[in-house]
Amino acid sequence: MESMKAILLISHGSRSPKSRQENCDLAARLQQLSGAPISEAAFLEADRPSIPEGVERCAAAGATEILVLLNFLNSGKHVLTDIPALLEEARRRHPRIEFRVTPPIGTHPRIGELFLEWVQDASMRPQP
């Protein structure tokens, strides 16, 4: 059986339509850049699709592997407790799907360079 990889970008969720659109745009961009055949945005709360709905969308599209990208800055309660519980239930529902989970984005070794770039970017400084 051929492997079908999916990206599931998980974010906190917000009532802001702009925030939702930014996350959906990022999921689409990641799909384009990676060549992954399946890419979905999902939200922990306050927006849809929920994380279980996002997993179901990936499964319905034929995913055999789901890479869960945690679009969270740090390892708080959501990252350490809430999301793992949801993913454990997803693993029980879909035992043939391999789930891999990234650490939160704030732990990435290049996050400091990204913030430094913004600190040094003249466009981010207040205008006189």
- Biggest β-sheet strands, sense, barrel: 4 strands, parallel
Helix fraction by DSSP (H/I, runs of at least 4): 40-55%
Strand fraction: 15-25%
List the strand order in the largest sheet. Answer: 2-1-3-4
CATH architectural grouping:
3-Layer(aba) Sandwich
Classification by helices and strands = alpha/beta
CA gyration radius, whole angstroms: 16 Å
Whole-number tally of structural domains: 1
CATH class wording: Alpha Beta
CATH topology: Rossmann fold
Number of strands: 4
Please state the average pLDDT score. 94
**Net shape:** globular
Please tell me about this protein's structure.
There is one protein chain. This protein is α/β, with parallel strands linked by helices. The protein has one domain (5-124): Rossmann fold. The chain is 43% helix and 18% strand. It has helices at residues 17-34, 51-60, 77-93, 111-120; strands spanning 5-11, 38-43, 65-70, 98-101. A four-stranded parallel sheet has the order 2-1-3-4, sandwiched between helices. Strand 1, helix 1 and strand 2 (38-43) form a beta-alpha-beta unit. Helix 2 packs parallel to helix 3. The longest helix has 18 residues, at 17-34. The chain is globular and about 55 Å long. The model has no long low-confidence stretch (mean pLDDT 94).
